[in-house]
Amino acid sequence: MGAEQCQVHGVQVGQLCCPHVNSAVRGSLEVPRDAAVSANIDMMDDGSDLLLIVMCQSCAARFNIRVNANLPGEVLDRAGLIPDVAPTCGICFAAWRNGRGGSDA
Predict the structure, then answer these.
(1) Which domain holds residue 90?
(2) Out of 5, 6, 68, 98, which could bridge 89 as a Cys pair, Cβ 3.0 to 4.6 Å?
(3) What are the pLDDT digits (tens) for 16-50?
(4) Is 6 helix (H, G, I), strand (E, B) or coil?
(5) Does 12 map to a domain?
């Protein structure tokens, strides 16, 4: 998770998402919420600290990431192993994920 300055909700903590999911959450791109792929980054490589990332199917396919994959922590240190991910507003993300729109929440 990371923090983002949401135009609607102010500073919020939320999921790390690919640019396409971030745009969908903000309402500027259509990405079906049921098509989003979630995966975990195992920060300590021992299962004790998992960081959830969410991406569109296109990004998941491009980086060969399957649904609910557990990725090693090194993916954050080495370029090209995962899509660029950035925080999104947790309130907007939850609204998008639950089908209530994104930044309209």
Answers:
(1) 2-6+17-97
(2) 6
(3) 999 999 999 999 999 888 889 999 999 999 999 99
(4) strand
(5) no
